[in-house]
């Protein structure tokens, strides 16, 4: 059940709005270069904000436990973002975004069930509705473009990465806010740079893709808002509210990029959003 603390709800929904906008910008940026270059530039953007913020806030150096959880969360999130940006760059936002949101929202609920108690009836209903939504989003027809079919797999992979991030970052100490996210961005930076070098490509340049830098700032803002939401409410509530980000991503894709969405996909998107809402009850 959603707690009475309104700040948990406000921070969670604000996180969804910021993340959704950042994912749209990141998808556009990934059309100009590879998704791994976008991940690397996004991490640089996040670090350029988080390190000064941590110093100005006077935060102490995080404990070894917090660093370990943060590094693991950062690697999980980096895989999720890379998969999401690749999917968005194919022009399949209506498939990738909601699929990743449902998977990312369900994983914290399942993790909480294993560690604490079984899901409530509304949680179970949300998971079932979400699976139905994924099925409808996946109903592309015989004329579907291969990029759309690939988007389904990328959406699931992205959701697994995001769900892992939600669970792992919630384990850090609550007396610091900016410092843990510094260690979240470090593995994302290493991940992006290593893949770029293995592919024998040049390291990314900010001038070549400023949208990637902007997407990184927005992603960092979403991270901060999610952590505040999780501390003001609970992991499950924060995760499902933050997972409503496809509303912003898809809306911007339709309005600005004129992406086409068929009626079955629209029904699937609606069910995915409904699922996220049910899980948060």
Explained architecture:
The mean pLDDT is 82. Helix 2 packs antiparallel against helix 3 (64-89) and helix 2 runs antiparallel to helix 7. This protein is mainly α and 281 residues long. It is built from 11 helices and no strands. It is 78% helix and 0% strand.
Number of helices: 11
β-strand number: 0
- Overall, the morphology is globular
Tell me the radius of gyration: 18 Å
Low-confidence stretches: none
Distance between the termini: 5 Å
Estimated structural class: mainly alpha
Largest sheet, in brief, is: none
Provide the succession of SSEs.
Answer: HHHHHHHHHHH
**How helical, in percent, are the residues?**
over 70%
Strand residue content: under 5%
Q: Mean pLDDT, nearest integer?
A: 82
Set down the secondary structure blueprint.
Blueprint: H1 6-30, H2 35-57, H3 64-89, H4 93-115, H5 121-137, H6 146-169, H7 178-198, H8 210-232, H9 235-242, H10 246-257, H11 263-279
Helix pairs in contact: 1-2, 1-3, 1-8, 1-9, 1-10, 2-3, 2-7, 2-8, 3-4, 3-6, 3-7, 4-5, 4-6, 4-9, 4-10, 4-11, 5-11, 8-9
List the keywords.
281 residues; mainly alpha; 11 helices; globular
Can I get a quick summary?
This protein has helices at 6-30, 35-57, 64-89, 93-115, 121-137, 146-169, 178-198, 210-232, 235-242, 246-257, 263-279. With 281 residues, the chain is an all-alpha fold. The mean pLDDT is 82.
């Amino acid at each position: 059940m959603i707690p009475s603390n309104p700040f948990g709800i406000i921070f969670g929904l604000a996180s969804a709005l910021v993340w959704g906008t950042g994912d749209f910008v990141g998808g556009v940026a990934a059309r100009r270069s590879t998704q791994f270059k976008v991940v690397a530039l996004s991490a640089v953007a996040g670090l350029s904000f988080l390190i000064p913020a941590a110093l100005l806030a006077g935060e102490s150096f995080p404990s070894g436990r917090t660093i370990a959880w943060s590094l693991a969360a950062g690697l999980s999130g980096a895989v999720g973002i890379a998969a999401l940006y690749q999917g968005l760059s194919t022009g399949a936002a209506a498939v990738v975004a909601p699929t990743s949101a449902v998977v990312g929202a369900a994983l914290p609920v399942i993790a909480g069930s294993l560690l604490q108690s079984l899901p409530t009836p509304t949680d179970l209903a949300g998971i079932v509705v979400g699976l139905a939504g994924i099925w409808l989003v996946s109903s592309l027809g015989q004329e579907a473009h291969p990029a759309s079919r690939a988007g389904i797999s990328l959406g699931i992979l992205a959701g697994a990465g995001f769900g892992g991030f939600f669970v792992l970052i919630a384990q850090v100490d609550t007396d610091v806010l900016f410092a843990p996210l510094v260690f979240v961005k470090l593995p994302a930076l290493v991940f992006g740079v290593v893949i770029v070098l293995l592919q024998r490509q040049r390291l990314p340049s900010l001038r070549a893709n400023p949208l990637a830098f902007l997407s990184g700032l927005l992603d960092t803002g979403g991270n901060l808002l999610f952590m505040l939401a999780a501390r003001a409410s609970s992991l499950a509530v924060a995760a499902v509210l933050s997972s409503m980000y496809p509303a912003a991503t898809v809306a911007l894709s339709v309005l600005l990029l004129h992406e086409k969405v068929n009626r079955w996909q629209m029904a699937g998107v609606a069910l995915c959003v409904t699922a996220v809402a049910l899980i948060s009850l």
